[in-house]
Structure formats: structure tokens, C-alpha cells
Amino acid sequence: MESSLPLTIDRSAALPLHLQLAEQFRAAVLDGRLQAGHRLPSTRDLARELSVSRSVTQAAYDQLHAEGWIEGRTGAGTFVTDVAPLQPAVRRQTAAKVDPDAGLLTLRPGIPYIGPTPDQGWRRAWREVSTQSPPPGYDDAAGILELRAALADHVGRTRGIACGPENVLVTNGTVHGLRLLLSVTQEPGDRIAIEDPGYLNAVVAAHDHRLEIVDVPVDADGLQVSALSTDVPAVYVTPSHQYPLGGRLSVARRNELVRWARRTGALLIEDDYDSEFRYDVAPLPALAQLDLDRVVHLGTLSKTISPALRLGWLVAAESMVERLASFRAESGDWPGWPMQAALLSMLRDGYLDQAVRRGRRLYADRRTQTCAALSPYGEIIGQDAGLHITLILPEHLDDRAVAATARDAGVIVAPLSDYRRTNPGPPGLVIGYATPSTPDLDKALAILTHVLDHSAAIETMSD
Ligand SMILES: Cc1ncc(COP(=O)(O)O)c(C=O)c1O
Asked: What is the position in ligand 1's atom list of the atom closest to the CA of 243?
């Protein structure tokens, strides 16, 4: 049966003529006016009927044919197919996402200050990358060799870790390095010790790898090594600035931890996330400096340049780096060449060192200002290093309720309870002072102190 359809052509419409035709054919099939086996007019007849060129009707048929709505039978003509073509998924209009933090001042820990205009060193690095052609192949899964050498030199100079390029693997940051390490070295069900309170993303990574998490208490000196049980094959630790309490693992504890790992054969995972920043205190040796056979060291650009770069490094024994790199060669999961090339340039021309020096000066002032503003409200801890302090609140206060009230007043702070798992402790606020501009920090602290002044009136979250 040949079909004759009331087709129309609108020459003033933006949609090309052949697509107008195709659309009307589809609609006719969908509403049943055209059914499987219906014969369509020839492109020539249809063109004549509609007073369009044959190329228009041919293009419409080609389109319908490609989409499976019609088929040509040699010598017989063009027919509607009996296979209902798959309907393209309807694209649902979703409401534009609203940033829940828009308009709020943030004292959330962990994010450095990023100025409004890019500085010279940053621009120079990217200019340099833009003048180079990308490598012809897949490149080394451990990272660009020259970059690994430059990073080995960097961690040697800044963290005292004696190593070469063979000990370095370029990562997309700490968490990426941690997850890679867990994938390669741990089996589901294995136990891993993690500081409590501690870094939630490390807990989530361990959880995702189906590891059994052993909570280890921390105090003002960091992880309590004496609380480690001997049957834990891996320990995740933040020795340079315990996250979030801010203690620096004492030399005695560092030695004790490495000795313990040598004795038990455990792997120590050193998260060195913000070691670049310390104020009026001498540097402490990186754990990896003490024993690269037992320690895997994770470094990041997230605190010195920007977390948005997604770039960091992992330093370990050569055999470990080889294992990790061959796993990555199969997964294809390593930082892209432009990012690596830019970091190489930043290291070579001293940009990273300069960013750290600048950050230290800026954050030292902000830390002083933050401590001065908040010290009347509780005990301040963890102020010797990093980009945040922790304010320990009086026992009777609910830190989540205080944080919620601060948020309602326009300031984001993190309640210490959010970082605790099984080890109890006093309430507190974890306060990052690095992110806002100096005037915004003033405003945020004024709001927070106002909230704390009225903290007696804050109802607990459980009420
Ligand atoms: C304890 C800790 N480690 C590491 C990081 C950084 O992770 P990444 O390098 O994946 O951005 C953070 C960031 O907030 C952190 O708090």
C-alpha cells in the first residue's frame, strides 16, 4: 500500500526542509498513520508533489533510512520497517543547580587562597606548555621522567627524602595516590588503621576497597602509636599536621612508628598534605625520610597551588613504584601530559617554591588573626602548621548546632564531630583560615564570634 500523507513544507522555518519532512514521517509512524509495510512515494514523486528539489526528499529518506524507520526493497520501492526504531531518550529539563554555598563566607578547612588574577609564574608555565607538541604515544604511566626527577629533587630539598626519579610516581593528588596504593597492595577484608578523628576521604577510600577500618586514637602529638595492634598491615597517618586536630607527630613517635612497622612488616601511608606550611617551629623529618621501604609518602599541590589542579606525587621504594605504574599502564589512569608539563615548568623556574613562600607569609598573619579572634571561646589547637586550626569548645556545646547556626549567619565552618568515628572527644570547630580574602576573613570571624557569643542560646541538633 502506498501512503499519501498530508506533508507540509515551511520555507520560512529555521529547520532545513529535509529535516521537516523526516520529522513529519516519524510523527506519522509514531501515531500509527504510517504502519509497517506501508510503501512511501518515490523521492521523485514526492519532490514533485511538494515542489521541492529531489535532493530534499532524498536527504529526508536517507535520514529516515539511517535511523531505521524505512527500508528500500530492490525494485519494489521504499517501505516503513516493522522494527519500531528506538526512541531517543527524552532529555528531561532539570532545574539549574543551585550552589548551596553561594553567598556564604567559607572557613571550611583545606583550601588555599587563590587570588583573583593569575600571576606571572602561572602564566609562564602554561605558555611554555603551549609551545610544545604533545608526546607521540601514551607516555610513561609513572609520569614524565623529567618531572619525576624534578619532584625527587623537590622532596629531597623540602622534606629531606633521599630519592631519585625511580622512587616517584605522579598522581592526581593524595586521594588518587591512596586509592591506587590500596588497589595494588590491599585485599578486600584486610585491616587498615586510620586516625580517629581523621580524614574522611581516606576512610571512604578504605571503605570502597572493602577494607576493615581500625580506628586509632590521636592526641596532641598525633597518632597514638602505642594503640596500634600488631596485626594491622597498613596504617594511614598525617604526621606533619594531624587532620583535623593539627598535632605534629613527635620525633619520638615517628621513630616508634617506623620501628613498629619494621617489626610488624606493616606499610605506613604518610599523607603529607600541608607540610609546606608551618609557623615558628622547626620542620620534623618526613616518615619517608626514615625508611622508604616501609613508608609510602603522598604529596599534593592542593594546598600550595590549587586543589583544582588535581596533581600530586607518591614517593616509595622503586619496586613499589614499578608495581603501581604497571597497574596504571593497564588502567590508563594517570595525569595528562599538559598538567605534568606545567608542573615541571613550575618546579624548574621556582614557581612552586615562590607560591609556598608567599603562602607562608599570608597564612602566618591569618593564623594569628584567627587565633586572636577565637581564643576567648575555647582552646585552640593545631596552630603550629597547616591552613586550619581547631577550636575546642566547652563540653556542653553541640558543635554541629554551632556550625549550623554559623551557616545560617553566613559562615561555613566544619564541626569536629563530623571527623570522629568511635573515639569520643570534646566538641570543636575545624576552621580553615586560608581560603577567604583578608577582608572576607575579617567578616567571617566577626560573624563567627558573634555566633559564639550567643552560643548559650544555640539548641542542640538532637533537640
Ligand atoms: C588530610 C588531607 N589529605 C589530603 C588532602 C588533599 O587531597 P588531594 O591531594 O586529593 O586534593 C586534604 C584536603 O583537604 C586533606 O585534608
From this structure: 1
